[in-house]
Design a protein that fits this description.
Number of helices of chain B: 7
Order of helices and strands of chain A: HHEHHEEHEHEHEEEHEHEHHHHEEHH
Structural class of chain A: alpha+beta
Helix content of chain B: 25-40%
Structural class of chain B: alpha/beta
Largest sheet of chain B: 6 strands, mixed
Helix content of chain A: 55-70%
Shape of chain B: globular
Oligomer: heterodimer
Strand content of chain A: 15-25%
Number of helices of chain A: 15
Distance between the termini of chain B: 16 Å
């Protein structure tokens, strides 16, 4: 329980406010509406953003190591004579076989990162043919046992399971759109033509529409099937890595790239354009909701300012009794804090209610029920309360300073 | 030694031209004496009282409390002295309207913080009872008569057991019966309890009842008369 001087000053502030019920109600309502909408809007924005980022992170491996190099290794001539002009005659270009060289060492290094799982795969292009229709397909050869732990393909399947690739000879998983374009469905057989020849593939799974992260024209086959189909036995050209903390992906990718030379792309790098958009979105959101809270603080300023103007005589009385300038300042700042505090409590309730309403809304998207993702974290409640209390203190501080500077002699001399 | 002394005190309001409220004033206030400051309107009586009560700060001269120069202290230091040692009674009761009589009297005690809440309440009740206001402790000022409000103000002035009580026209708004009660109370505070009481007044009956009468004119102290009950006080300077 508050005692002594703080209790006295708080008691005076409460008495002042209780005499100005209508203004107090308006100021409290302003703060409550500000806090309530801050919570609802930020829950909506942060929730949708978190959902979006989670999809970005989880749709594909956190790190993808491919058989590309960011910059080619320097040629032998410049390496032998750095800075010199070198003329070469009669050289022959060596055709290197694409793929990750020493991939088992890379795989072991990625697996050695605490909490990380690495999945080898081979990608290539084939053409699917069914009844005169043709579609290009980028195939990804995977090991389903590992891939299911690295990406979320499994959970995005409309029908079938990734493990069916292991049980069905020549199994392939493709997207619903592609299947529709080819006029095929589950269990149907298509002809796949690649540099290694033509063979038959059977549809064992369809992933959902709109999964742009999975690639609209991508299909999954067993790794050894892909190696055989593309004529590249024992070769892989991609390692997907899932790490324990997705936000460490960039640092881990940099380490792997520095060690092995192959391009290791983190999810942050792949989605840099989208993440920068989210940053702008954050700035806009916090600007708008801060403006709401700022407007609410004007109400507090008005109430405290009017209180100071009305209580000039009381201020002079208290000063003559022996109250200090800081006492008077604290009384009026306390008024601002009380208004903010009550406003915050009601604002929390309003925000909670608005979130509950938003949480019940249901939208059908691509045949699925879609609920608005909301962030109901305590952090937003704390942020709204802190911002409102700070705004309340600042709004009250200005008139409170004026109150502290009231010269009691001026009031006592002119009192009637 | 005098309790409070003003030596060659002046108070000039800045401006064009500057306004002189008090100039070259010398006043001595003794413990156990009832002093009045009299003079025509605008002669600087209230300004002198505010300087003696440390509500205002002199622009010249010194104000000594128990021999220490306190006139030049900053606002909060003077406020602390007022809280601990002075009590004020004004013409218009100046009670806080939202507070009951009891809460108004408790206010200085709670701010000083030397008594527990229960002890402060007990003392406030006793002071109100002494002022004849037993049973009216829970009334707000708007539910008290003018005389009752002024008695609450006196009780509040006594809350922290002050050595000096300053009154600015304390009977100016009271009828004759209540005026007499207030004057009797002031005399008792001075003579029975040994406090110093200084009152600014237009009321000749109050002036007559005082031990010392200080006359002012145009911001100057122009005369000091002493009653039989008070020993002669030499004027400094």
């Amino acid at each position: 329980m508050i005692a002594g001087r703080p209790a006295l000053l708080l008691g005076i502030a409460i008495k002042h406010l209780s005499r100005r019920r209508r203004q107090t109600l308006v100021a409290v309502s302003g703060v409550a509406v500000g806090v309530g909408f801050f919570l609802a809007v930020s829950a909506l924005m942060i929730g949708s953003q978190a959902d979006f980022v989670a999809r970005l992170i989880d749709a594909a491996p956190h790190i993808i190591i491919s058989d590309e190099l960011r910059s080619p290794a320097p040629q032998a001539g410049p390496r032998a004579f750095p800075g010199a002009a070198v003329a070469l005659h009669g050289y022959k270009v060596r055709n290197e076989v694409r793929g990750l060289k020493g991939w088992s060492a890379i795989l072991a290094a990625a697996d050695a990162v605490p909490g990380a799982i690495a999945s080898p795969s081979l990608t290539g292009a084939v053409t699917l043919r069914v009844g005169g229709r043709e579609e290009a397909l980028g195939i990804i050869g995977i090991d389903p046992d590992i891939e299911t732990t690295v990406s979320t393909i499994e959970s995005n399947l409309r029908t079938g399971r990734l493990h069916d690739l292991q049980t069905v000879q020549g199994g392939v998983v493709v997207g619903e759109e592609l299947a529709q374009r080819l006029g095929i469905g589950m269990g149907d057989i298509v002809a796949a033509t690649s540099s290694g020849g033509t063979r038959s593939l059977r549809i064992v799974g369809l992933f959902k529409r709109g999964q742009s992260q999975l690639g609209l024209s991508s299909g999954y086959v067993l790794l050894r099937e892909a190696q055989s189909m593309l004529g590249r036995p024992f070769i892989i050209n991609r390692i997907g890595v899932r790490v324990a903390d997705p936000y460490q992906a960039q640092a881990i990718a940099a380490r792997l790239e520095a060690r092995f030379g192959y391009k290791a792309e983190s999810w942050q790098e792949r989605s840099a354009d989208l993440l920068s958009l989210l940053l702008v979105r954050d700035v806009i959101m916090y600007t708008v909701v801060s403006a709401i809270l700022l407007v609410a603080s004007f109400g507090i300023y008005t109430v405290v300012s009017n209180s100071v103007a009305d209580k000039r005589r009381d201020i002079a009385i208290m000063r003559s009794i022996g109250f200090s300038q800081s006492d008077l300042q604290l009384v009026f700042i306390a008024e601002g804090i009380i208004l903010s505090f009550i406003g915050v409590l009601f604002g929390w309730m309003l925000g909670y209610g608005l979130m509950a309403i938003l949480g019940t809304l249901n939208f059908p998207v691509n045949g699925d029920d879609y609920r608005i993702p909301l962030d109901r974290g305590v952090r937003q409640y704390a942020l709204a309360a802190s911002a409102s209390l700070l705004a309340g203190v600042i709004a009250a501080w200005l008139p409170a300073r004026k109150a502290a500077r009231v010269d009691p002699v001026d009031i006592l001399r002119g009192a009637v | 030694m005098s309790l409070l002394e003003a030596r060659d005190v002046s108070r000039v309001l800045p401006g064009d031209p500057p306004v002189t409220l008090v100039t070259g004033a010398n006043v001595i206030i003794e413990a156990g004496s009832f002093t009045t400051i009299v003079g025509p309107s605008g002669c600087g009586k209230s300004s002198m009282l505010y300087l003696l009560g440390l509500i205002d700060r002199p622009t010249g001269g010194t104000v000594l409390l128990d021999g220490a120069d306190v006139g030049g202290l900053d606002g909060d230091a003077r406020a602390q002295i007022r809280l601990e040692r002075f009590g004020f009674v004004f013409q218009f009761h100046f009670l806080l309207p939202e507070f009951t009589a009891l809460e108004n009297v408790m206010l200085p005690m709670r701010r000083l913080g030397r008594l527990t809440l229960a002890a402060a309440e007990a003392r406030a009740r006793a002071l109100l009872a002494d002022a004849g206001l037993a049973g009216k402790e829970d009334k707000t000022p708007d539910r008290l008569s003018g005389g009752e409000r002024q008695r609450v103000a006196i009780a509040r002035a006594l809350a922290n057991d002050p050595v000096l009580i300053l009154g600015d026209e304390p009977t100016g708004n009271l009828d004759s019966r209540n005026s007499v009660r207030v004057v009797d109370a002031f005399r008792a505070l001075a003579h029975d309890q040994g406090r110093a009481v200084v009152c600014v007044t237009h009321d000749l009956s109050i002036a007559a009842a005082a031990d010392v009468r200080i006359s002012m004119l145009d911001g100057r102290v122009v005369g000091v008369e002493r009653g039989a009950s008070t020993p002669a006080v030499p004027m400094p300077g």
